[in-house]
Automatic annotation (TrEMBL):
<feature type="transmembrane region" description="Helical">
    <location>
        <begin position="51"/>
        <end position="71"/>
    </location>
</feature>
<keyword id="KW-0812">Transmembrane</keyword>
<dbReference type="InterPro" id="IPR010432">
    <property type="entry name" value="RDD"/>
</dbReference>
<dbReference type="InterPro" id="IPR051791">
    <property type="entry name" value="Pra-immunoreactive"/>
</dbReference>
<keyword id="KW-1003">Cell membrane</keyword>
<keyword id="KW-0472">Membrane</keyword>
<keyword id="KW-1133">Transmembrane helix</keyword>
<protein>
    <submittedName>
        <fullName>RDD domain containing protein</fullName>
    </submittedName>
</protein>
<feature type="domain" description="RDD">
    <location>
        <begin position="3"/>
        <end position="138"/>
    </location>
</feature>
<dbReference type="Pfam" id="PF06271">
    <property type="entry name" value="RDD"/>
</dbReference>
<feature type="transmembrane region" description="Helical">
    <location>
        <begin position="107"/>
        <end position="126"/>
    </location>
</feature>
<feature type="transmembrane region" description="Helical">
    <location>
        <begin position="12"/>
        <end position="39"/>
    </location>
</feature>
<dbReference type="GO" id="GO:0005886">
    <property type="term" value="C:plasma membrane"/>
</dbReference>
Amino acid sequence: MTYAGFWKRFLAYIIDYFIVFIASFICGFMIGILLGILMAVFNINPQEAEAALSFAGALVGLSIWFLYFAIFESSKLQATPGKLSIGIRVTGLNGERITFLRALGRTAAKIISVIILAIGFIMAAFTQKKQALHDIIAQTLVINK
């Protein structure tokens, strides 16, 4: 196994970011239209509608984010479209496919890396197995195909 380096992982993340952004934008747009129709039909206060839209948008955006990574990384592909395009995949410590729950936990652990000023992501450049903090927590590796 050869471990995927920081820059390959970063480039894959940028690709995935744009895919998730577009999907979230489309879903958010549809939710906005739906809430606009509901506001008109039920004469809902615009401030209440704005709060509902913000909450719904955040919930949908987070759901898309978590499901995107968890579904793709636990699939037979073992990689998101971004990772596939770069030629890397996510595995367990022995090279096995990870479960959906482990992939979901791996994605959730990325929050810790964000909170500590992205240091958890940068760790992938310096650890022996090129693991970021979320990889260490989830006991996963990102390897070259």
